[in-house]
Amino acid sequence: MSSLYPDESYCTTDIGRLLFQPKNEWAVTGKVIEATDVKQITGTHTDYVIEIKCVPRNNIELDDRFFTITSRFRELNRLHASLSKLHKQLYLRGAFPHFAAPRLLGSCEPSVIAERRRCIDDFLAFVLDSEVLRKARVLQEWVEKATERPNSGQVATPSSLLYEGVNIMDAPNM
């Protein structure tokens, strides 16, 4: 099975199709917005909530789209290893970012979580900036579980559009 999808028809989700678009059409960024500890009978682990923001570059008629994915460090570590291997095999430019080492004990300490968040942010920035890696099968399979959240833009009201003052400095705070 191929490591890269040949065309966008293989993508099963909206975010997959957006990732398949060229960078000059859709700018895609990702960052960790929350890290929560999950306690289970078998132990404690940290879930990282990742927000992927897709911004159209050439079309003002399209709105920004936001997707969220909740993922464990173990899944992200596997994704990093797979994409790092693919990066080497394809002889792509740039140094693939370093990833935090897995830890069995102390993985829920604030310093470890802060380091992991930084590494995940760097990793996502590198991968989502690469048009080739955005087409990787493993990345497409990982983003399949993303859910789109509605754009929380401000709603225009009649009072926010009208101002009959003399000076812009006299405008009420909105």
Automatic annotation (TrEMBL):
Q: What is this protein called?
A: PX domain-containing protein
Q: Which residues form the PX domain?
A: 67-143
- The domain of life is Eukaryota
Q: What Pfam families does the record point to? A: PX (PF00787)
Q: Which GO terms describe its molecular function?
A: phosphatidylinositol binding
In terms of InterPro entries, this protein maps to:
Intracell_Sig-Traffick_Protein, PX_dom, PX_dom_sf
Q: Which organism is it from?
A: Strongylus vulgaris (Blood worm)
